Amino acid sequence: MTYAPLRLEDYDISPTHGFLPSEPPLRRLPDPYYAPWEDIMDRFNQYLLAHHIRRLVRKMPVLSTDKLSTQAEYRRAFSILSFMGHAHVWGRNGTVSEPASEFLPASIAVPWVAVAEFLQLNPVVCCAAVCHWNWQILDDTAEDLMDIDNLGTIHTFSGSLDESWFYLVTTAIEAKCARGLNAILDATAAVERDDMSQVTCALHQIAYALGEANTILERMYERCDPYVFYWKIREFLAGWENMEEAGLPYGVLYEGVDDTDTFSLDNWNSLFRRFRKYAGGSAAQTPLLQALDIALGIKHFPTGERGPQSSVAEARIKLRAQGVPEPPTVNSYLVQMRDYMPGGHRRFLEDLAATCRVREYVLLECSDSLLHMGTASDPRVLLRQAYNGCVDLIKTFRDKHIMIVSRYIIAPAKNGPMSPQRVAVPESSKLMPPAAYMQAKAKQTLRLQSGGRMGGDSLSADPTMYPQTNIAATLKSSEQPVSKCPMQNMLAANTRPKSVSLQAVSEAQDVGRLARKLEDGAVARGTGGTDAMQFLKQVRNETAQTRI
Known about the structure:
Elements lengths: L34 H8 L1 H6 L3 H7 L11 H20 L12 E2 L1 H14 L7 H6 L2 E3 L13 E3 L7 H16 L1 H16 L2 H23 L1 H4 L2 H8 L18 E3 L13 H6 L1 E2 L10 H10 L15 H11 L9 H6 L5 H13 L2 H8 L4 H4 L5 H37 L18 H16 L22 H5 L9 H8 L9 H7 L22 H13 L4
Parallel strand pairs: 1-4
Antiparallel strand pairs: 2-3, 4-5
Helix pairs in contact: 4-5, 7-9, 8-9, 8-13, 9-19, 11-19, 13-16, 19-24, 20-22
């Protein structure tokens, strides 16, 4: 097979921004035809907080995608349709008993599928929708425009700083690792020329990019609180595959797509075939890490299975006897995640796997005896050290990722929602006339019984989104009978303990939720639907085993 150098631009990859667009994403679609979408996004967080999203989405017209003309416009459309789509599926309508929606209205489903087909990825929230196409530059005069402290998000589900920071860490890593992508192509070309010094130089450039990625990843803890992420953000990023426990056993029906408007209710098998199952947003969907794995020859096998392990010496014998092998079998989940990447990025990974032979080159050039006989200035020693340095940095990155998952998913899931801090105001009755005090106390009691937040909110708290704020279920489950007289209820409430446990509340509300307290031994699934820790630990261990 004749070697043909790869060009990043041929795969819609930026030499300066990597898998991010070269220019900041659009903040609004220019054609007023799409005002129904943009009007919702203008007050998206407010609508979601007020439980209006499902009603507004159902009222929206089904817009055509024919008026989208540029790649940037298609990306903007995909991103906002992703936010609205997941808000409709996972955003409750203010009713405690209302489950996740298995039905996506045509106003979202039809254009979302059309835009996804144009961009060649699945119609569901993915890394590209919230990280690659959802950033803006804050200061156009900054020395480093893509520094994480000079970036902001365009949209979030929660409106929180924590969610913005969670996305921006990935965005900044992608930008900083553009250097690494260029170096991968340099290393691939240098192997073809048998230019050992250039291969070593390119590996040093990859290591530099990985060092920056590790530094940025460590900053996750600065402005993203684990409690906020797990209980208030994470569910919106989930998809509808392997989500039986979260209330979507069959997936989601996309109205107006796959003949969903023609099926017969008498034929349930026909109905079930029309449900779509997609994984949610996952770090595995970034092409960056998969490109680095391919470049360094890091093999990943199906989760729970151990691939054929051979020593470095055995690998050299096979290479000399059989020549360069075919691209290795990779973890099926990682291959599946490529369907959540834009088409150009997916093709880049496929073509890179067919041409990059950096690991094979290092194996053939560097013998084990170099560890004992080679000098520090030996080019082969330097090559081997540079290669192993890159592998070590990827392993370190995955160690940090596992720590983040432990802190942001495993720990909150085991601890459960925190109890609300009930602040007692002593001697309140002495600060106002008795009649006014009794009236205010009665109103507060009624508000608590209806599930409202303390503090006079006009909207009742959604206890499924914010379980730590709801104490209505605790009041209702009290052993003391509830009188029809508000004043008697108030007097009875004064005799209850001031410290209210949320155990009964959280257990009742955990049903059908991705964010819930997990019992001992229960599997913590990622938003992609996998056993998160098993997958990440296996990928980390396979990385460590790649050292030469």
